[in-house]
## 1
Amino acid sequence: MESSPVAASAGRFLLVACRGGAEAELVRRQEAVLPQIRKAAWRRGVVTFRLDPPGQPPFDPPADFFPDLVFGRACIHSLGQVTGHDDAARVAAAIAVAGTGPWQAVHVWPRDPACAAPLEEIRDRLVAAVGLASASGLAAPGDQVLDCVIDSPERWWVGWHRAATPPSRWPGGIYPGTLAPTAVSRAWLKLDEAVATFELRLERGQRAVELGAAPGGASQRLLEAGLDVVGIDPALVDPVVAAHPRFTQWRKRARDVKLREFRGFDWLVCDMNIDPVSTMESLGRIATAPGVRLMGIIATLKLPEWSRAAALPEWLDAFRAWGFRPQARQLSTGGREVCVVARPSKP
Ligand SMILES: C[S@@+](CC[C@H](N)C(=O)[O-])C[C@H]1O[C@@H](n2cnc3c(N)ncnc32)[C@H](O)[C@@H]1O
């Protein structure tokens, strides 16, 4: 059980950040995996949940609950909101609410990524106010993190969480990595975030096949990790990737590749811009094919509308039926989609 580093009575609300537009799907997911709490309020990019709804016994969520929320990027125990006539006054108000700790890290992040507040400056002030020597924005596992969520430049929410999973060590759950200047597409960064989020061990000499590989950013990231890669896509892959000695393209649709050709791959990566039901069909066909022994699947399921995520439990069950343990997350560098990483149930 988590306990608040400040008043035991404080923080009976959870504040969960998500991509703008995903709020309803976040609540749907919460109702399925954490029905003990109840939605209290929402604004674009943030939903708050009451931890002890009327008529229900007080509930302390387990420390590791938030990965199951899929659409929840960051999850903090709320301590209250602060206002003030300038940043110095708001920092003083935040410290009055949160106390000086002990805090091991300070995360300052905006509800709306377009917010113009000086995040670094606010963080430096808070770091100094709680007497932290290190100014690193990233938390270490186990750190007690003071969160300051910038709702608007004039109004902040203060809260806390315990760092555990990789995204919980990043302010607001936003991946801190940046797109490599040589990357041929943003999918490079998406795969980079998936690797960091799910702590995937991609190793030199492993073989990956990617469905929907063009123009090639994700394949490029796999090649950089030392893998041999086959990219399947009717569209052309960028010449930089196509020329790589460990890359081969099969210029076809996924369903036109014979099942026996998928033997010998360790990783099945998939990022096709097609309906998620068709993506699931392709994945199932390959994952269950005779002679195919995968170490893992890294799949993007596109959501033509957010509401299509209602089928997520069904899709995750399908992965289980194929003999895999799936985990899902709406990556911070991805669009309206869910990343599913699945490892074999029996190693
Ligand atoms: C979002 S892009 C993939 C980006 C890519 N992963 C990268 O790293 O740059 C989607 C790709 O899926 C491909 N695609 C769509 N349907 C496909 C199918 N049935 N089989 C293989 N590729 C398909 C499209 O041609 C397109 O290049």
## 2
Amino acid sequence: MADMLALTFDAAHTDWDASTGMVLEHVPRPTLSSGQDRSCVIVKVRFAGFCGTDRGIWWRKAMGDMVLGSLKGEGGTKRVFGHEMLGEIVEVGDKAATKYGYAPGDVVSTESHIVCGACYQCRRGEQHVCANEKIIGVSMDGCFAEYVKLPAKALWRTDTSRIRPEIAAVQEPFGNAVHACQVTDLRGQSVAILGTGTIGLFAVLVAKGMGARQVIGIEPDAGRRAQALQLGADHVFAPAMPDRQRPHAPDPELRGAIEAVTDGVGVDVAMEMSGFNSSLNSAIQITRRGGHVVLFGLKNGDAVITDFHRVIMNGLQLHGVVGRRIFQTWEMTRGLLENTSNGIQQAIWEVILNGGDQAIVDLQGFEPVAFEGVMERFTKPVIRVA
Ligand SMILES: [Zn+2]
Ligand SMILES: [Zn+2]
């Protein structure tokens, strides 16, 4: 059987909690058999994005239950990671060809959430909150590999003459920002983004692209604040260090700083993208009466809401946001990226992907220690597979 290079974890000889990282090794190439594989394709991966979820996997801070639980369900021990990609179809199941029209040579990206199509949400057209979803590179094998098997229904055709391949590979996380920015109409609005990691930086671009009047970045890291400004943020603020006694408490200075740039009103929309409890409370505190708080940053376990009455008495709307609308978000994503007059593609390439310099790493010869350095220096590493 032909094999391929992949970044993996193997429960047979590695303890999840006692290990870190991903192992570069040769594994069998995926093949199409009969049954469900008739609706699948094999994609030869060109570029794959490495995101916060992958960092969580790398440092074993997230996804352990899903990885180990899904392996147990499959009766296997090895998982190939990676869920953001651009590649070329090389093999097509007969139903993937007749029902979806895919053929070898087609260039595709993919939705990373594989939805069931049968649960209550799916039947109501809300696939992004499917009750039975699987996630590529977490609960099924992913794209940090030369080849990946994917269901045709998750694929998204991509025109690489309009979207640069390295950027096309990160449509999925860019789509997270698009989805978060579609929660409410941002035209003419004042928007604060708390936490300008990759998705927060994307959100700066998207909010501007969708017509926000003012975008404010709130971020502790000076380098990322500078990036937010480069991408078009009107103001950036560094949050105060969390209070040791009350680590969940909001930044006491922030409301005043925001009032100073919003005519004393507060922002129309605050997007919490860091996952810190203090930031959640800051987001609530800086939002104007009747405004929206979009919650995207993930946190396990309990969170404390300070000043809870403020949520009710100010008539705030809190929204939990996950994934992307399938495929409405992808349509909008394509529109924003293919429209070169908005400068979004160029900004992603120059500012977030550093013009390709050092932020893009080859799978061939992948070296974990060197890659940890790349993770430290760049918010969005991209793996060049072929
Ligand atoms: Zn991701
Ligand atoms: Zn479903």
